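Deliverable D5.2: sample structural annotation.
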Amino acid sequence: MFLTALLLAASATPTPSLGALAATSSPTGRLSGAVELAAPNQDSAPGISPPQVESKSPDELPEGVVARLGDEEITLEQYKDELFKIYGYGALSEFLYRRLLGKEALRLNIAVTPEELELAWQQEWTAMLARSRGVEKDVHDNLKAIGYTAEQYKDQFLVGQHATLLEGRIIQTLRVPTSAQLAARFDLLYGLNGERVVLRHLMQNRSRTKNALRALGTAPELLTNEHLDVEIARRAAELLAAAKAGADFEALCRAHSHDISVTQNGGLIPNYNFKHYGEDIAAAVHAATVGKVIGPIQAPAGTHLLKVESRVITEFATVKDSLIAVLMADEASYVERSALKARLISETKIKRR
């Protein structure tokens, strides 16, 4: 909030705006986490008269005054005290954490450039315009309604964005992928234990078989589980024979499978990971010959016919380095950000008034 920014601006070390950040950039144009304060004005060179100070208009606010209510002038100190009553040490804690991020970034030689910050602001402004249907005046009116000018909102946004980018880069720099993380990402990208299969299945179950028989007028006494299992076995054998005789298995799945979640895909199970439908199905898939329809196989959900369309085996050692690179490039998670904040604060002696 801009109110928070004003409170911080009144503290001993001001929070930098984009302009201040740019002023502290290195010759390479990189911003370090540390923020330098502007040097005091030097004496005028000999023989050159100092510039004349223009007298202020009666309507202008004196130095240290942030507002005027009629004849009453509200000082920055009064405003700061009021904000401190409202926000307490919360805003101060965030300010101190940004300073700690700056120190850690400096230690690790990590920086954020002014160009990156400006790009982030342009993206934010574009999003704000889109929410206002492209009417810039509406954006300004909306900001004014919550107490901001566009420049004030930009300054507040950039302070937060600078901290967010530094925080993410610190985490990525210090991240060390664990064996568990590597294994999980390996399974995700290359299939369980490096086996990636494309699997198509046709399922028959009791519920839909019963509905179909009831629609045909089958007597209730012939709709027991025992009768249904006999009918499912008969139907599965019939469909398996059709597939072995050359019928298109994808078409059979679309027309006859009771798994309505994949019938529109011709029976293809998206991202099959050997955890769908139980261990018996997984064992059958492991043993199946690519391109051959197998079954019937009993599972808790019903009776299945299976066809492995393709199988790719990947050895972990051949992709370990690329997996590490992928994990290192992951965006910093909320858990990682919270852990970094806790560590930096715990490692620093902080004393507050």
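Annotation notes: The longest helix spans residues 150-174. The chain has 14 helices and five strands.
The annotation will be released with the project's public dataset once the embargo ends.
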